[in-house]
Hints:
- By secondary structure, the chain is mainly beta.
- The chain has helices spanning 3-15, 19-26, 30-38, 326-329, 358-361, and strands at residues 42-43, 47-52, 67-71, 76-80, 91-96, 99-103, 109-113, 119-121, 129-130, 134-140, 146-152, 157-164, 166-174, 179-186, 189-194, 201-204, 211-217, 220-225, 230-234, 242-247, 258-261, 267-274, 277-284, 289-293, 299-302, 307-310, 319-322, 344-347, 353-355, 367-373, 376-377.
- Bound molecules: 2-acetamido-2-deoxy-beta-D-glucopyranose (4 copies).
- It holds the Pfam family Beta-prop_KIB1-4.
Amino acid sequence: MDPMLILDLVIMVMERLSFVDFYRARCVSSVWYSASKSCRMRQANPWLVLFPADVLHLPLESIDDSCKLFDPIDNKSYTVRDLGSDILRTSCLASYNSWFLMLDRKTRFYLLNMLTRERIHLPSLDSMESTEGKKFKFKRNFDSSFTVTTFHYKDNVTLLSTCYGIGAAVLWVDERNKDYFVVWAFDRSLAYHKKGDDGWRVFRSSTNQSCVDMVFIESKLYVLIEDGSITSFDFSCGDSPMEFASFTPSPECCDFEHLAVTLSGQVLAISSEERHSYDIYKMDPKSSKWSIIKSLGDEALLLDQRITVPAKDGVLKNCLYCSYNDQFRRDDDYNLREDDNGICVVNQTNNEVQLFNHLTASSPLPFKDARWFIPTFGGK
Length: 380
Ligand SMILES: *[C@@H]1O[C@H](CO)[C@@H](O)[C@H](O)[C@H]1NC(C)=O
Ligand SMILES: *[C@@H]1O[C@H](CO)[C@@H](O)[C@H](O)[C@H]1NC(C)=O
Ligand SMILES: *[C@@H]1O[C@H](CO)[C@@H](O)[C@H](O)[C@H]1NC(C)=O
Ligand SMILES: *[C@@H]1O[C@H](CO)[C@@H](O)[C@H](O)[C@H]1NC(C)=O
């Protein structure tokens, strides 16, 4: 048979496979492997990844440098092995589909694809410079905070030497050409890096306030700041980001903790009065007023990735997928509790909560973090 025809047939078959079978089929032969790269990119239902905790005094041979993946639809777990023992002392700051933004103990950032184990190393922090010409020196402390020294080279004065943790972070990856964009917050500043840049750049909003959370969509970064307002930046116009709008919440509103974006590009703000209970708000662009929304429609909210996804192929309609509280995520010594790991799916229609405590209860080793993510697969 014509080899092109075979390839086309294999592609047709592979595009019909489930996520797990797709990855199995890739290993059949080199023809199947190259066919997998030509398959249309698809997304599966949300999976969980659980990151291993650092267990002190463990003998070297019993260190488990693996992450656990869990597919709630098949009720099946998978293990991603050989991630290197530094994974135990590395925090996950953000995710984008199968890609995760990681920060290791030596203050090195990298992107990790949890399905292919591919890594992309990001520049060191030595080269960090602000849009106003300041230079920064970062020194990692024993916990996950930094001591940051700020130099202003115009008059050779050391301005500041203070201890900061990393706040919110954002990752965006174009899976076709591996373009990526990373932002993270420290103090009242934001540091960003995109593929092709030499190093990190630092900027500040005119509001001079700390970032609580942020989302990135179509070159625009929306930053939720301490006073509850949202400032936005456009990264598509030249060298430095351009601040283009600020939205201030009405006084009766609301202790927003998170931002998210819907499939149609609408920015949502999320507050949580109590555990497993979330209020979702959207802003009317005309009046700039926030109002609570009762339903996500035919979408589900993946809070760990700050996006909504279509509720089909097993994704639960009007449900909110979340893991435990963000504040613990930056604490290196935090372990997920075996009997209450905080991982859940909340039905926004009737507030019913599905828990996943069996994942930590049944594991011999502790986990420090868990995130829902969308395993994307296929090649183009
Ligand atoms: C999922 O699998 C676990 C063990 O692998 C089992 O204990 C549990 O009952 C299963 N849950 C469902 C809903 O089938
Ligand atoms: C600032 O530092 C530069 C290079 O280290 C040096 O050449 C310059 O004389 C210094 N300026 C002042 C005002 O100390
Ligand atoms: C920003 O806020 C900090 C702390 O409140 C203050 O020390 C600093 O001077 C402010 N910077 C500007 C440019 O307003
Ligand atoms: C959520 O609750 C509604 C109302 O009780 C129910 O009809 C729907 O099936 C529930 N969704 C899921 C995914 O359980």
